[in-house]
Amino acid sequence: MKLIRNTIKGLTFKQILLFSITIISFLASILFVYHNDSFYDRTIAKVVDTQLKEKIEVVDSQNNKDQLFTQSIIAEIKNGELKGERIYLMNEYSASGAFDQDYEVGNEVFISIDKDRKESYLTGTIYDLKRDKYIVWMTWIFIFILVVVGKMQGVFSIVSLAVNAVLLSYALDVYLHTSTISLLLSCGIAAVLFTVISLLLVNGVNEKTYAAIIATLLGTFISFLITSLVMWITKEEGLHYEEMQFLTRPPQMVFMAGMLVGSLGAVMDVAITMSSSIFTLYEQNPQISMKALKTSAMDIGRDIMGTMTNILFFAYVSGSIPMLILYMKNGNLMGYTLSMNLSLELARAFAGGIGIVLAIPFGLYTSILFINRKRAKQ
Amino acid sequence: MNTLVCLGGILFLLMVLVGGKKGARSFIAIFLNFCVILFTIFMMTDPLANPVILALIACTVISCITLFYINEVNRKTVTAFLSTMITFTILILFIVVITDQAKIQGFGEEETEELTAFSLYLGVDFVKIAAAMMIMSTIGAITDVAISISSPMQEMKNHNPTINRKELFTFGLSIGRDILGTNTNTLFFAFFGGYLAMLIWFKDLSYSLGTIVNSKVFSGEMINILCAGIGVALIIPITSWITAFFLDKEKKKK
After folding, report:
1. Contacts of B118 in chain A (CB under 8 A)
2. Which B residues in the span 137-176 are in contact with A, Cβ-Cβ below 8 Å?
3. Is A359 domain-assigned?
4. B13 touches chain A (CB under 8 A)
5. Are B222 and A245 within 8 A, CB to CB?
6. A358 contacts on B by Cβ (under 8 Å)
7. Do B20 and A302 touch (CB under 8 A)?
8. What average pLDDT does this structure show over B173-189?
9. Domain count, chain A
10. CB spacing of B236 vs A42 below 8 angstroms
11. pLDDT recorded at residue A4
12. Which of A115, A130, A145 is the last residue of a domain?
């Protein structure tokens, strides 16, 4: 108790205010997401009882054994005119659950109600699970962990992430609503803004940040140029756009824009690591020779190069795991499976890697440029 | 010539030019990691195998390659490795619960329209595969943070041998905080870039906010991003504590 009282006493008014606002918005959003049924146009029902009706074993042409289940569900309607009434639903699902799922008591589901009422009770079909509360819970867990671990820096990273998300969404809107501007251009402009905003927010207004911004932009755009050039010279041989999903626009454009945005974060990370360590070295010893500065900075660059490329590599390649398994289990050959599903991911990872490696010398030389200017002034 | 081979070649060349021997090793490590992932996926197609366990084993091997092969086996990398393993274990428990609850496994309805030629009853557990996918997408970031914290802590200890455990721990935390922002940024942009097509799709077909948030594909990606962020934050205190513990223990021995 004493500890808690002392901790509270040690807080400033601003901190208490920030803390209270966070707690209040946390409670309000949780309360909202559990009682927002009336805001949805689609009918929502809460499962109150489930019963397993049937279980069949199935074997497909590739000799994959699976089980199919049929469950009958009684649910209570949560919104609309029929609110409070009970409805009888059927759900079929498989043990593997590649595109279906079982429902348990307490789950909320989106449903449609059958119009012609043949029986004395309501019947309908289930569309999907209502997942909004999981997103809200996860977001809060993420925010709390980031703030507890990172304190003020945690708050800044959350703010910069939120700003970037809004900016990206806005850039896409601009692209979709104006026919003249291309996706690449709108993402390119967005990339410049992302870099400036994120680096200023995370690192403050100083020369370190300016050097990092220049290095990031150089690294990203030059690696983008190299990749485009290679794609042009090789006529994109080996790149398979056929399996790209969610396509409403030309796939090549979407892929290139995704590549530009995707490598940006990693290049920024490398650029800021380079510039802040070079500036720290300089501040600790202003008389340090250029040669010593370069050697130490290159050492640091070498240290981060491998792990940084790994980050992108895993973030990209892991996303294809379910699709790869689907292909392989359907009797496709390994080579075909990989080239169909991984070619774009690997190209993206390589392009990002090129950006990361380029950012090391760029970060080094822009920082040295700024340091030389500083020295000349003194 | 094949675009991928060409891009890979350029990356290798640049890595060697900038990084010398270590650059070459970094490139080979990526290649080895790719082999480990492929082998793991291959194992996951066996219905009797548990994808979560397989992912944990793969993560162990991959962290060994990333930490011990690119760098060497020394106190820094050993403590980084230990902290990575602890973080994975905590994170995977959390991920298994959330994938099971939110039912985000497999493919969304938008995707299955294109998959009509495939049999989808495959006998493998897609819930566990989704969990495995999430943990493996964060492994690069987690090992990166671990080594970025344990390595300067070791330097600090070398410069000030009298430093005590608590001061070391605080030093580790402060380094972690500095890299937290840029690391979450790296992951977010990587994911954003990958999901660009999906975002354009939602906007083009004017999905309502309610539909987007509740759809399997979007909530799956969101949960993946947030889990990655949580992993990157969690590793910071864990690495700081473990490294401080080992460095301090060593001092007492002397």
Report:
1. 326-327, 330
2. 137-141, 143-144, 147-148, 151, 173, 176
3. yes
4. no
5. no
6. 14
7. yes
8. 89
9. 3
10. no
11. 66
12. A130
- Is A147 within the bounds of a domain? no
Find the domain containing A102 and state its range. Answer: 41-130
Give the B window 107-136 contacts with A, CB below 8 Å. 107-112, 114-115, 118-127, 129-130, 132-134, 136
Regarding whether A111 and A6 lie in a shared domain, the answer is: no
3-state secondary structure chain A: CHHHHHHHHHCCHHHHHHHHHHHHHHHHHHHHHHCCHHHCCCEEEEEEEEEEEEEEEEECCCCCEEEEEEEEEEEEECCCCCCCCEEEEEEEEECCCCCCCCCCCCCEEEEEECCCCCCCCEEEEEEEECCHHHHHHHHHHHHHHHHHHHHHHHHHHHHHHHHHHHHHHHHHHHHHHCCCCCHHHHHHHHHHHHHHHHHHHHHCCCHHHHHHHHHHHHHHHHHHHHHHHHHHHCCCCCCCCCCCCCCCCCHHHHHHHHHHHHHHHHHHHHHHHHHHHHHHHHHHCCCCCHHHHHHHHHHHHHHHHHHHHHHHHHHHHHCCHHHHHHHHHCCCCHHHHHHHHHHHHHHHHHHHHHHHHHHHHHHHHHHHHHHHHHHHHC
pLDDT at residue A290, as a whole number: 87
Mind telling me how many Å the CA of B253 is from chain A's nearest CA? 30
Domain presence at residue A143: no
Q: Do B186 and A154 touch (CB under 8 A)?
A: no
Has residue B169 got a pLDDT over 70? yes
Query: One digit per residue, pLDDT tens: chain A, 378 residues?
Result: 666 666 666 677 888 888 888 899 999 999 999 988 888 988 999 999 999 998 999 888 888 889 999 999 999 999 888 888 899 999 999 988 888 888 999 999 999 888 876 667 888 899 989 999 999 999 999 999 999 998 888 888 898 889 989 988 888 888 888 877 788 888 889 899 999 988 888 788 888 999 999 999 999 999 999 999 999 999 888 888 877 777 778 888 889 999 999 999 999 999 999 998 899 888 888 888 888 889 988 988 888 898 899 999 999 999 899 999 999 999 888 889 998 889 999 999 999 999 999 999 999 999 999 999 988 887
Same domain, A279 and A307: yes
Closest Cβ opposite residue A154 in set B120, B180, B198 = B180
Residue B15 is predicted with a pLDDT of: 94
Contact B198 A150 (CB under 8 A): no
Q: Please answer yes or no on whether A307 and B66 come within 8 Å at the CB atom.
A: yes
Q: Examine residue A177 and state whether it is found in any structural domain, yes or no.
A: no
Do A304 and A250 fall into the same domain? yes
CATH number of the domain where residue A223 is located? 1.20.1640
Selecting from A141, A161, A317 the residue whose C-beta is nearest the C-beta of B230 gives A141
Domain shared by A208 and A351, yes or no: yes
Q: Are residues A95 and A223 in the same domain?
A: no
Which domain-ending residue is among A130, A156, A174?
Answer: A130
Convert the pLDDT of each residue in B44-96 to its tens digit.
998 889 999 999 999 999 999 999 988 888 888 999 999 999 999 999 999 99
Interface contact flag, A325 B45, Cβ < 8 Å: yes
Report how many Cβ contacts below 8 Å link chain A to chain B: 420
> Which of A238, A251, A257 has the CB atom closest to B2's CB atom?
A238
Please indicate, yes or no, whether residues A28 and A85 belong to a single structural domain of this protein.
no
Best residue of A173, A323, A329, A338 to probe chain B, by most B CBs closer than 10 Å: A329
B207–chain A nearest CA distance, Å: 13
Same structural domain, A201 and A106: no
ipTM tops the 0.90 cut? yes
Residues in chain A with CB shorter than 8 Å from the CB of B219 are 131-132, 134-135
Residues A100, A77, single domain; the answer is yes
Residue A157: predicted pLDDT: 87
Whole-number Å distance between alpha carbons of A270 and B15 = 14
